Amino acid sequence: MQQHHHYINGAWVEACEYTENQNPSDHSDIVGLYAAGSAAQLNLAVDAAKAAFMEWSNSNIQMRANALDFIGNEILANARSLGELLAREEGKALAESIGEVSRAGNIFKYFAGECLRLRGDTLASVRPGVSVEVTREPIGVVGLITPWNFPIAIPAWKIAPALAYGNCVVIKPADLVPGCASALAEIIHRAGLPKGVFNMVLGRGRIVGDALVSNPDVAGISFTGSVATGRNIAAQCVARQAKVQLEMGGKNPQIILDDADLEQAIELSVQSAFYSTGQRCTASSRLIVTDKIYPAFVEGLQARVEKIRVGHALDKTTDIGPVVSQQQLEQNLDYINIAKAEGANLLTGGELLQRETQGYFLSPALFADTENTMRINREEVFGPVASVIRAQDYDHALSIANDTEFGLSAGIATQSLKYANHFKRHARAGMVMVNLPTAGVDYHVPFGGCKGSSYGAREQGSYAQEFYTTVKTSYCF
Q1: Strand order across the 409-413 sheet
Q2: Which residues make beta-bridge pairs with 12?
Q3: pTM for this structure?
Q4: Are 30 and 22 in contact (CB under 8 A)?
Q5: 288 with 400: CB under 8 angstroms?
Q6: How far apart are the C-alpha atoms of 301 and 378, rounded to whole Å?
């Protein structure tokens, strides 16, 4: 079986240990053997990035643009095979997997253009004969720690801006899904970047990730993952005055008002809550429904959820694939049992499913008649589990929506311009959707939230420069 190595200083570097990458749709399918790195190997990667920084940070912007455009084109040209790899290692349905790969390609192509669009300011000084320039410069070596739920898109939206703005990269992808990151590293290798500009070290977070966060030569850490880990990373970065960017959890609300188009509201709720097996930080697991439409919505939603086809991620008839791992499956089942114990009404789902292959298949679970105080509505489940909360009216629904420690994405289904506009202004979330699923965002605009969901500058689009660059003010007489 093929072994996949680290990528350090322009070369593939073997590890002392390799781990199996198992297909969650079919446990007999081993995607490959992937390196399990050490702190020493991580530090070698940082040393390589540090040595390459001066040349790369001052490199020709057209050369950078060409390299990123090449990477984007290669990803798009191989979207099918990369999508199949993604489906095999993460369990995302094939159509969604190919869509994620295409998004990754477009991200690189977008930031190829950003190489040429970095702006500054020229200002008059209050002192005669003095000119002032405000420019942006790269911050140095950046450490990127990415999660398992978007194994190629999230690495892309961190790597691409880091390189575009002249930084050098050390990435530690999630050890659960190393395949897509390794395939992406191979494409980046073919782009011909100078040695040390891009580096990838695979392995466990408590070993490789900890070494990356604590290395004094890493100027900034961009992390996407759990709240507890993110807070720990933030504390370490602040202690040594490194820049930090965090994207963490969500408990995203989807409001359905009495005047909503019922069929549209049901469909967007299904898309928000259950597609990608509910394993999205933007998934809407709290469906807040006002009184008059509540009975019809719950009845229609249950019928629609029961039509969702759960199966092997590579099966073209599959709507949602398996849960990503045994650990995640057990967490989902624990929350389903907690919800039952709290008095939530399980309308459908929440059962293990048998398919032709052995996998982590779980039927989508839908709860009704829940309260916002229940744990099922307070804590992120990160699986195909959603609950319906009854609200008296719009004001009550908005109050429930904002009553959470998180603030990533929020949605509303309504035909009222008044309520739509009010919600856009008053929803305590970084992203607001009107008559659209809470999950599903564009790659050229800012991504991020407030409260416990995010910390630091936004990701994606031109706003990515806020993290990956620093501002310099120059005076000249």
Answers
A1: 345-348, 365-370, 385-391, 286-290, 253-256, 409-413, 431-434
A2: 7
A3: 0.97
A4: yes
A5: yes
A6: 22
Unique residue bearing structure tokens 């293990």 = 352
CA distance 380 to 403: 14
Which one is the CATH code of 253-434: 3.40.309.10, 3.40.50.300, 1.20.1640.10, 3.40.390.10? Answer: 3.40.309.10
CATH code matching the domain that covers 3-248, chosen among 3.40.605.10, 3.30.390.30, 3.40.50.880, 3.30.1370.60: 3.40.605.10
Strand-strand pairing, 17-23 and 26-36: antiparallel
Backbone angles phi, psi at 11, to 5 degrees: -140, 155
pLDDT in tens, 301-358: 999 999 999 999 999 999 999 999 999 999 999 999 999 999 999 999 999 999 999 9
CA distance 367 to 347: 6
- Grouping H, G, I as helix, E, B as strand and the rest as coil, residue 256 is strand
Place of tokens 């019922």: 262
Q: Compute, in degrees rounded to 10, the torsion defined by CA atoms 380, 247, 312, 201.
A: -130
pLDDT in tens, 204-242: 999 999 999 999 999 999 999 999 999 999 999 999 999
Enumerate the domain spans of the chain. Answer: 3-248, 253-434
| Burial group, residue 127, by CB count within 10 angstroms (0-12, 13-18, 19+) | exposed
Q: Token pair 């297909």 is at which residue?
A: 23
CA 322, 327, 330, 336 dihedral sign is negative
287 — phi, psi (to 5°)?
-105, 110
pLDDT, tens digit, 9 for 90 and up, residues 34-66: 999 999 999 999 999 999 999 999 999 999 999
Distance CA 291, CA 287 (A): 13
Is there a contact between 376 and 350 (Cβ–Cβ < 8 Å)?
A: no
Cβ-based neighbour number of residue 374 at 10 Å: 18
DSSP of 10-77: TEEE--SEEEEEEETTEEEEEEEEEEE--HHHHHHHHHHHHHHHHHHHTS-HHHHHHHHHHHHHHHHH
The catalytically annotated residue of 247, 267, 351, 356 is 247
Active site residue 247: yes
Instruction: Give the Cα separation of 283 and 318 in Å (integer).
Output: 19
Residues in a beta bridge with 20: 33
Token digits of residue 210: 């900890």
| Average pLDDT taken over every residue of the chain | 97
